[in-house]
Write a structure and sequence with these properties.
single chain, 441 residues, alpha/beta, Four Helix Bundle (Hemerythrin (Met), subunit A), Rossmann fold, 434 Repressor (Amino-terminal Domain), 8-stranded mixed β-sheet, 59% helix, elongated, binds guanosine-5'-diphosphate, binds magnesium ion
């Protein structure tokens, strides 16, 4: 994808404005990227049209070319959607906090139960793992092994009682947790290979029996396009508060994350990244966004472009200051605004010989003053800004009225400008700085 986008970039590079054609061209590539990342088609459609809207309304950036700007909007939007509402586990006011896991068979619930238990134990909690998956023959044993590795207690039905009732086990586990001073209960439930009414009913029954503080939907990142139907079915059948994405160590590009988030509106809280207990992390929206878009290098380029732009602006201004040529009121205003925006100019000036005095003056710029100064300068005509000598008494009065300040203030500003201009000429005459843009070579 990166290659294709780079070619879109170069074809758009020279243009200054974000046109519909620019946006469409870039969005076509974005669409392909999302589909390749296995984001579900309806989600791709919604997302792309949303981005188009935002891109149309966006101000044209001076730092980025149109394609870069669209990519940046896409990335920002993706991070925001994936990360909006990111939140921590909610703990019950009165322990135990009950966390119930739901998801298809093989999604990674049992593994996740162990990871979560270990993670919570390391934070000083005393979790209890509950085996409410009595469907598969080895499920209870599997959880017991996981519990041992995580060094966490496991609550399971007594062996030899025939097929147990998962709802009863779950309900009983809460009392057990209270008696044994467990402050967190993690309920591992059964899954099926596909969506199944009986399964949904069992999960809903367990939910009703224990009123969990959190129901977490565990979903395999490799599920791809099916993420939408699966998430929707669990949302309707059981309901859930948060999402855990598993098997992110695989080569899935993670489109499921966007699909599930988009369809259910529920936050993705954790990421499972391997079979070992420690392969577990909070969910990072920015990492997921660049994984889905698969253009980390392009995003790095965009960041660099923005940084370079800021530096160039600073250098350009410093160059004008040094040469003292054509220094106008517009520059004066821009200079002051830049001082507010950026430390680097001050630093830049500080590094230049003979600029100490200038830096002093810049330091004296009162930030609150800037808005008034800006208002005054903006009330001047372009001709006045270019050649402030023409600003006579009647012009001063007009400018004062236009900017809502006194005539004295306008006069003071003009005087300050002439001082600055004079000083700059002196400085420029007194030295040559090789290599500075606009300076002497
Ligand atoms: P459950 O049926 O939902 O309880 O799923 P399991 O926890 O039994 O996991 C199913 C399989 O996926 C097991 O072989 C796990 O070792 C494996 N698994 C679970 N989570 C991950 C993960 O994050 N990465 C990888 N590579 N494998 C995982
Ligand atoms: Mg299981």
């Amino acid at each position: 994808l990166s290659d294709r986008l780079t070619s879109v970039f170069s074809s758009l590079r020279s243009k200054g404005r974000l046109t519909d054609a620019d946006i469409d061209a870039t969005c076509r590539e974005i669409r392909i990227a999302l589909l390749e990342a296995d984001v579900a088609l309806p989600v791709v459609r919604d997302f792309v049209s949303h981005v188009k809207e935002r891109a149309r309304g966006a101000e044209v950036s001076q730092a980025l070319n149109p394609a870069q700007q669209v990519v940046k909007i896409v990335n920002d939007e993706l991070v925001q959607i994936l990360g909006g509402e990111t939140r921590r586990l909610r703990y019950a006011k009165t322990p135990p906090t009950v966390i119930m896991l739901a998801g298809l068979q093989g999604a990674g619930k049992t593994t996740l139960a162990g990871k979560l238990a270990r993670w919570l134990r390391e934070q000083g909690h005393a979790p209890l793992l509950v085996a409410a998956d009595l469907q598969r023959p080895n499920a209870v044993q599997q959880l017991q092994v996981v519990g041992e590795r995580a060094q966490v207690a496991v609550h399971a039905p007594e062996p030899g009682n025939g097929v147990g009732d998962p709802v009863a086990v779950a309900r009983g586990s809460i009392d057990h947790a209270r008696r044994q001073q467990h402050d967190i209960v993690i309920i591992d439930t059964a899954g099926r290979l596909g969506i199944d009414q009986e399964l949904m009913k069992q999960a809903a029954d367990i939910r009703d029996a224990v009123s969990p503080d959190e129901v977490l939907f565990v979903v395999d990142a490799m599920i791809g396009q099916d993420a939408v139907t699966t998430a929707q079915a669990f949302m309707d059948g059981v309901g859930f508060d948060g999402v855990v994405l598993t098997k992110l160590d695989g080569d899935a590009r993670g489109g499921a994350a966007l699909s599930v988030r988009h369809i259910t509106g529920r936050p993705i809280m954790f990421a499972s990244t391997g079979e070992k207990l420690e392969d577990f992390d909070a969910f990072h929206p920015d990492r997921m966004a660049s994984r889905i878009l698969d253009m980390g290098d392009i995003l790095t380029l965009i960041e660099q472009a923005q940084r370079t732009f800021d530096e160039e602006e600073a250098a350009k201004m410093a160059g004008k200051l040094v040469s003292g040529d054509g220094f106008t009121l517009d520059d004066f205003l821009e200079q002051m605004m830049m001082v507010r925006k950026m430390g680097p100019l001050k630093n830049l000036l500080g590094m230049m010989p003979g600029m100490g005095q200038m830096r002093e003056q810049l330091n004296q710029v009162d930030e609150r003053d800037l808005d008034r100064v800006a208002a005054i300068i903006r009330s001047m005509t372009p001709a006045e800004r270019q050649d402030p000598k023409m600003i006579n008494g009647s012009r001063r009065a007009r400018i004062a009225r236009g900017s809502g300040v006194s005539v004295t203030e306008v006069s003071n500003l003009v005087t300050r400008f002439f001082d600055a201009q004079k000083m700059m000429k002196q400085v420029a005459g007194g030295m040559g700085i090789p290599g500075m843009p606009g300076g002497r070579k």
